[in-house]
Amino acid sequence: MNHRCSVFRHPATGKVTPWYLNVNGKLEHRHLPPALSTNDTELEIHAVLAGQVIGQLANFAAAAHIRAGRLVPVLLPFMSAYIGLHIYYGSRAAQPKRVRAFLDLALSRLLDSPDYVLSDKELQSAVRAWKRARSR
Fold first, then answer.
1. Rounded to an integer, what distance in angstroms lies between the CA atom of residue 5 and that of residue 14?
2. Which is nearest to 1 in space by CA: 34, 50, 45, 38?
3. Nearest CA-CA partner of 86 in 60, 68, 50
4. Tens digits of residue pLDDT in 13-60
5. pLDDT in tens, 72-118
6. Domain limits of the chain?
7. What is the pLDDT of residue 84?
8. How many angstroms separate the CA atoms of 51 and 120, rounded?
9. What does R_g of the chain's alpha carbons equal in angstroms?
10. How many Cα atoms are found within 13 Å in the side-chain-facing hemisphere of 113?
11. What is the reported pTM?
């Protein structure tokens, strides 16, 4: 609560998305006083990269930055997998072949893809590397 945090504001509704934290095995929603409130995920990432705020970023957006050492995961014991990436489409009964082809492609490229999803081992390793670098 004493850190400068960012929050995401839903573009369609304007509602602020709370931080979702896993506390003692239960999902908790925490509304934080924001130092930055935006509906632009790229702006939020740049603010976090610049060291201006701490943000709750999606795994797919943060993975490359964590692997490169530009971001350090914090609050790992409280990390939740609450929010997912969703694809919406019309009726399954009248689904054009091109829609099915896109869905199959998206699922094959994104679902549990190591390009966009960090394992627990990778997250822990990133934290250890950061701690080693700080102690030098």
1. 18
2. 34
3. 60
4. 989 999 999 999 999 999 989 999 999 999 999 999 999 999 999 888
5. 999 888 888 766 677 777 777 778 899 889 989 988 888 778 777 88
6. 5-135
7. 67
8. 24
9. 17
10. 15
11. 0.77
